[in-house]
Amino acid sequence: MSRRSHYPTYNVWDQHEHWDPHTRQIVAQRRTPVISHSFLTRQEAMLVQTLAGVLTDEYRQEVLTFVTQHIDQSLNSPVGESQRKAGVPEKKVLYRLGLSGINEASHRLYRRDFIGLKQPEQEELLRRVEKGTVPETSAWQQVAPQDFFQKLLYDVVNAYYSHPLVWSDIGYGGPAYPRGYVRVEKGLVDPWEAKKDGE
Amino acid sequence: MENRDRVTHHTNHYQGRRSKSLDQRKYQDGADVCIVGAGAAGCVLAYELAKAGLKVVVIEAGPFWNPQTDFASDELATRRLAWEATRIVDGANPLRLGHNNSGRGVGGGTVHFTGVFLRFHESDFRTRSVDGVGEDWPIAYEDLAPYYDKIEREIAVSGPKHYPWGPFKGPYPYPVREPISANAQLFREACEKLGIESVVAPLAILSAPFDGRPPCINRGFCNQGCMPNAKYSGLIQHIPKAIEHGAEVLSDCMVTQVLTDGSRVTGVLFDHDGATYEQKARVVILAGFVIETPRLLLHSSTPHFPDGLANSSGWVGKAIMPHSSHDVYGLLPEEVRLYKGTPVLALTQHFYETDKRRGFARGYTLHAHGARPVGMASEIATQRADGQFLWGRQLREAMLDYNYYARITLVGEVLPNPDNCVTLADEKDEYGMPLAKVTFQYGENDRRLIEHAVVQMTQLVEAMGGKAAHVVADTAHLMGGCRMGSDPVQSVVDSYGRCHDIPNLYIAGASIFVTSGGANPTNTVMALAARTAEHLIQEMSRQNI
């Protein structure tokens, strides 16, 4: 596993003029996320942003702001959840309870809000949510910690790996319409794709 | 002025052909055929029936997409091509629905399928006789073969000159795809090392110009909607042609009830923008896939049909099947770049038929399968076969090697089990319909098949010079829920999709499958729909319906 990007000088956004207008518009909006929320309270939004940072090992606020905005929008959307496990509350309720549960547990264990904890403490608490061994506070009596953890992790990861800065980190070629890929076989790259260590 | 542009003319369907007002519908006073659902099956039926001169109305819950302005080269923004309405999932292996296995909007799942276009084999139709598992279909491979031929020609399937498995040996109508991606090359080389035959995948993706559409440019976003229109979808091929032949397509219209008069259906009720409309028809065809078709039938119960329409057998909603679809991500010393090219460009059906020595019945297909960052990261984070989650530094570092992974995906047969089913939940949706509850768990045979396949995929990755880094538990596709059969006590429809209980109600699509096979189902869905269309044209012209 790599500790750092194989492509430190690559920026996928440099190619945006070659993308179709619809895709360009979608990706551009991710680069300048708005900091207003329609479902989450200010405190909840800050907590989601902190959780997203721990879950993705990320500190760049521009990326995490987009992740938070995406989750807020999905919580306020009339579109369904595709699937919900029997016995799990609907997403709005799951998030509200889960976020309360995080801070309740944080106070029980450390007498502080989650966002005030040191990173190792935050990781330890999230590990206990993941394993279902978090202190059984009032919120966690209404919702299973692992159900919340899975939904949160899924939502965070989906948004995080949709950000062009993260695409650049991992050397993803990104959108390729209308030009497509010409050199697809082993060892071949198109001239505009990411090159190892900026070769 | 009518828009004659090949790519966008269908989105101008309103001009001259469909009034914006649903009170001025073309077949307001009654159609010959009303098709519910514009997916793989509904699109073929609409085209064939309209071409035969029948008055056809297609009612589709989702939008009439324009590939140029509605699709995007982006995973997150194109989730809406799937049916995202909430379903309750239950059972020991609750299914992941949405983009994983459904479509919403004209074209249905064909808008975002990978385009892998395989036939079922002879044994798939006779699993009970041959292997003592599952159930036999009321038709044999030979009954479907002419319709496979027809559909493959009609959409110009590209594929190898020689196909080594099953009764169809090739050649395919269009030349095999060339070049293939690094992931597909590595897969084929690894297969060869292990003495496993492999081929370049037969695909509903053009390898040369056809019908005004260009060949594939290896953009790689098949699952996000093809923007160049190189990949087949009902949206860009069958529906525009059906409209040319007089069909009317009502998009953004959700059918909420099938109407009956005594023992026959008379039409459907649908909702558009909060208002309810009725569409009368001589024949109604439900082509709403494995979950919505049973939901609609169960929800449309009447005093005459107290357990739901067409459900005297009790089999409506029963024996649904996904394919098992575990993935193995292999970490390699050199770059692979899973994002490049058509996602599936190579496959093997070496393990397709039953081999008793393996300790399970039936078999599977293995695909060299590309992956994009969102799909890969969310799978290895939240759907690991070991039941763990991956997050924080471990996830970040795993994904920094994104370009160094190869990926192999299983399409494994899942045996039918009536306990795996669609029922109605207590909770209601915005139309006042009960949500579908979808219950699923693997059986012992299914689990053994998966174990065997994961071992093979791991060995293939090692033959590439890599090591299996992430094993993901997933499913793909859905089949069954309104199975066909000759015995009305044990099945919902006959082999043409005609309901045993109601002579002018038909069901089309994957919901009428008896078993799942171990191959991607779309070719079989479309071939069955073409067979139903031919039957209906005959029956309706003879005034038998």
Proportion of β residues of chain B? 15-25%
Shape of chain A: elongated
Helix-residue proportion of chain A: 40-55%
Rg estimate of chain A, integer Å:
19 Å
Q: Determine the mean pLDDT of chain B.
A: 95
Which sequence of SSEs, written as H and E, runs from N to C of chain B? EHEHEHHHEHEEEEHEEEEHHEEEHEEEH
Name the chain pair with the biggest interface and residue counts per chain. Answer: A-B, 66 and 73 residues
Sheet-strand content of chain A, in percent, reads under 5%
**Topology, number of strands of chain B:** 18
Number of strands of chain A: 1
Q: How far apart lie the N and C ends of chain B?
A: 39 Å
Point out poorly predicted stretches of chain B. none
The residue ranges of chain A in which pLDDT falls below 50 over 5 or more consecutive positions are none
Strand and helix layout:
The complex is a heterodimer of chains A (199) and B (545).
Chain A: H1 21-31, H2 42-56, H3 61-75, E1 83-85, H4 91-110, H5 119-131, H6 138-142, H7 145-160, H8 164-170
Chain B: E1 31-36, H1 40-51, E2 56-59, H2 67-70, E3 87-90, H3 127-131, H4 141-154, H5 182-193, E4 199-200, H6 238-244, E5 248-250, E6 254-261, E7 264-272, E8 275-286, H7 289-299, E9 318-324, E10 327-331, E11 344-348, E12 364-369, H8 373-382, H9 393-400, E13 405-412, E14 421-428, E15 434-439, H10 444-463, E16 467-472, E17 475-481, E18 505-507, H11 522-541
Parallel strand pairs in B: 1-2, 1-8, 2-5, 3-15, 8-18
Antiparallel strand pairs in B: 4-11, 6-7, 7-8, 9-17, 10-13, 10-16, 11-12, 12-13, 14-15
How would you sum up this structure, described in words?
The complex is a heterodimer of chains A (199) and B (545). With 199 residues, chain A is mainly alpha-helical. Helix content of chain A is 51%, strand content 2%. Chain A has one domain (14-198). Chain A has helices at 21-31, 42-56, 61-75, 91-110, 119-131, 138-142, 145-160, 164-170; one strand spanning 83-85. The mean pLDDT of chain A is 96. Chain B has 545 residues and is of the alpha/beta class. Chain B has one domain: FAD/NAD(P)-binding domain. Chain B has eleven helices and 18 strands. Chain B has helices at residues 40-51, 67-70, 127-131, 141-154, 182-193, 238-244, 289-299, 373-382, 393-400, 444-463, 522-541, and strands at residues 31-36, 56-59, 87-90, 199-200, 248-250, 254-261, 264-272, 275-286, 318-324, 327-331, 344-348, 364-369, 405-412, 421-428, 434-439, 467-472, 475-481, 505-507. In chain B, strands 1, 2, 5, 6, 7, 8 and 18 form a seven-stranded mixed β-sheet that branches. Chain B has a six-stranded antiparallel β-sheet with strand order 4-11-12-13-10-16, with helices on one face. At the A-B interface, helix 1, helix 2, strand 1, helix 5 and helix 7 of A face helix 2, strand 3, helix 5, helix 8 and helix 9 of B.
